[in-house]
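Incident log, support desk, overnight shift.

02:14 A customer reports that sequence design results differ from what the structure should imply. Their input is reproduced verbatim below. On-call engineer (initials T.W.) acknowledged and began investigating.
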């Protein structure tokens, strides 16, 4: 009897990281094959993307776009160049043009209650300018009413599952129809995690797209595959092909192979990734899965 065929899948894509806050070399030649930096000094992250660690693709959104004095202005971890203040609607087009010039794949916007907030006219101007440039808008929405503002302004992605308020079902339905959410569930515990999971479960049940992201760089989040994050995606209602799509890259991504069968549950997927290695070119007997 011959060996059982291996299963080959795309590698992991972490859709929310901050590379300026981590040892980037720790991501070399691992199961994470692509990361999306969602807020940093555009020159610094562009240099990282041009010369990434072996086996890693880096995409980046550039700076946080916020109100003057808004989040994360003044935070010890955030260099000045990582924050772009937008004070008026007339400044939105230039801010987006700078993202395009820097090679960013999207426009990061922050709506963080407790610090100065972008007013609606500036928020809408940023969304309109980004969409005119064919860039998605990725919003950090924190605090009462901020997720609703983001969704209703036309944001494409919420970069965290909302965790500061239980969203009403009507808003969940609108969000599921219009936005993608990035998980970052494992950065929470206690009540915040409970709120986030409740929102995530209803979002998934309403047909929303939930994707894997860890907020690497935020506290003790480990580099590489975050098994707790995958476990929480399972708790949010993802399994089978939907879970694999959430965690793994597109078919064109660098591929991994494992002797384990095609994973359908969160525990299956974490076990599969633990036993995976970079795939060699396809051979007879290999199963290319998705």
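02:41 Re-run completed on a clean worker. Output:
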């Amino acid at each position: 009897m011959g060996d059982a065929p291996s299963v080959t899948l795309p590698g992991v894509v972490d859709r929310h990281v901050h590379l300026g806050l981590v040892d980037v070399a720790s991501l070399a030649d691992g199961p994470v094959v692509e990361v999306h930096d969602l807020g940093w000094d555009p020159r610094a992250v562009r240099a990282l993307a041009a010369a990434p660690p072996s086996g890693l693709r880096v995409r980046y959104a550039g700076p946080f776009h916020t109100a003057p004095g808004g989040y994360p202005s003044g935070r010890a971890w955030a260099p000045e160049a990582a924050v772009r203040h937008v004070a008026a609607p007339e400044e939105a087009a230039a801010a987006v043009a700078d993202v395009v010039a820097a090679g960013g794949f999207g426009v990061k916007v922050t709506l963080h209650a407790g610090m100065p907030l972008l007013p609606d006219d500036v928020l809408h101007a940023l969304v309109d300018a980004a969409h005119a440039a064919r860039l998605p808008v990725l919003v950090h929405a924190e605090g009462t009413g901020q997720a609703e503002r983001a969704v209703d302004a036309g944001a494409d992605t919420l970069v965290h599952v909302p965790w500061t308020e239980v969203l009403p079902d009507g808003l969940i339905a609108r969000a599921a129809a219009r936005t993608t959410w990035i998980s970052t569930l494992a950065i929470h515990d206690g009540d915040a995690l409970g709120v986030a999971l409740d929102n995530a479960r209803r979002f998934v049940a309403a047909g929303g797209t939930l994707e894997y992201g860890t907020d690497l760089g935020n506290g003790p989040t480990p580099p590489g595959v975050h098994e707790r994050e995958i476990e929480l995606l399972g708790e949010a209602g993802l399994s089978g092909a939907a879970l694999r799509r959430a965690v793994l890259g597109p078919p064109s991504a660098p591929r991994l192979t494992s002797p384990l069968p095609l994973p359908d549950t969160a525990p299956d997927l974490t076990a599969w990734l633990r036993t995976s290695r970079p795939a060699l070119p396809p051979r007879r007997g290999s199963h290319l899965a998705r």
